[in-house]
Amino acid sequence: MNVALQPADHALELTRDLKARRERVFAAWTDPEQAVRWWMPQEWTLVSCKMDVRPGGGWHRRMRGRDGSVIAKWGEYREIVSPERLVFTYNTEHADGTVDAETLVTVTFEDLGGRTRLTLRHEAFQSGAASLSHTGGWTGALERLVQFTSAD
Question: What's the pTM value of the predicted model, to 2 decimals?
Answer without folding.
Answer: 0.91
